[in-house]
Amino acid sequence: MKRLNSQLQDDGAPLELILLIRTLLAGCKEISFRVSQGALAGVLGSTLSENVQGETQKKLDVISNQILKDILIDSGYVKALSSEEEDDVVPCNPDGKYLVSFDPLDGSSNTDINSLIGTIFSITHAPQWMDPDDPSAFLQPGTQIVAAGYVLYGPSAMLAMTTGKGTHLYTLDKTHGGFLLTKPNIQVPQDTNEYAINASNQRHWEENMQEYVGDLLAGTDGPRGKDFNMRWVAAMVGDIHRVLCRGGVFLYPKDARDPDKDGKLRLLYEANPMAFLIEQAGGLASTGKKRIMEVMPTDIHQRIPVLIGSKNEIETCLEYYQK
Ligand code: F6P
Predict the structure, then answer these.
(1) Of 20, 203, 272, 292, which has the most beta carbons under 10 Å away?
(2) What is the spatial distance between Cα 5 and Cα 181, in angstroms, rounded to a whole number?
């Protein structure tokens, strides 16, 4: 089976980017081990602290963040990093060529129930003019990303990654520690009858989303004329993995709970990398108003609405936004 390294070379990734990706993934393998040890290593449960988003940090959030931070700072390839678990950007090597943004452990509330979690990352070039502690260099639209992906810590540890030459799935072979290519050029089916949304927020959604989901729920009795199935992992990484593998749409729309927040999911290290992966697999990713990857970030922890998945179904959903 083909190894990650040779797929990256075939996709034309420059050597330094390949080395950076391998370094990042070495950190993910360490996280995968820690996650799998669970209660045996005393890593489950919460800390007493909150992150900048006001969310209680899980012990594994803090451990995963530290692992990635240490390995990236040490590598020399990175000028600065931004993380869900860091209030500000973290300066690394002033001569580093890349910027890395990551969510070290997405869906971390699932740690306590031994369910799906993962690491999401994206990499862009570091502008030469930037100081390593300057957050403005991170404010690049998703179209500037040179590599993005996630590692899903599930029954097997899987990597989904793109450098802009298709999205490939790899499985971690724990016998020798390498990611092996198990699904090259994955394609999201264009049509689907499956959707993912946290329906408990329904009363807070905007009218267009109320109407769209209402029509999905009406099934064969409604205007869509077919039944739809619903799934919700409560970890974006798990839901997007399902969408990549068998199609579907993943929705976290804007809602009225907090007028200061434009959605729940973070643009830099959740929405953008997932949008890149899904687009490279033939799907669509929108905020409802525009392509996610064209949104110009205004803050490293900016939140945006997310509608991602099978091309034809996202287009149908967007028709409700155009009404
Ligand atoms: O960090 C965001 C996140 O955990 C996503 O991974 C997930 O899709 C979503 O929040 C779950 O949200 P909720 O708590 O509304 O189910």
Answers:
(1) 272
(2) 10
Residue ranges lining ligand 1, Cβ < 6 Å: 106-107, 198, 234-236, 239, 264-265
Residues in the chain: 323
Ligand 1, atom 13, residue with closest C-alpha: 234
Identify which of 220, 211, 213, 208 has the alpha carbon closest to the alpha carbon of residue 197. 213
C-alpha distances in Å from residue 148, one per residue of 159, 220, 261: 10, 38, 25
| pTM listed for this prediction | 0.96
Question: How crowded is residue 219: how many other Cβ atoms within 10 Å of its Cβ?
Answer: 14
pLDDT tens, 168-206? 999 999 998 999 999 999 999 999 999 999 999 999 999
pLDDT in tens, 217-232: 999 999 999 999 999 9
Q: What atom in ligand 1 is closest to the CA of residue 250?
A: 8
Residue 20: name the closest of 86, 89, 81 by CA.
81
pLDDT digits (tens, 9 = 90+) for 301-313: 999 999 999 999 9
Closest approach atom of ligand 1 to CA 55: 1
- Give nearest CA residue, ligand 1 atom 12: 234
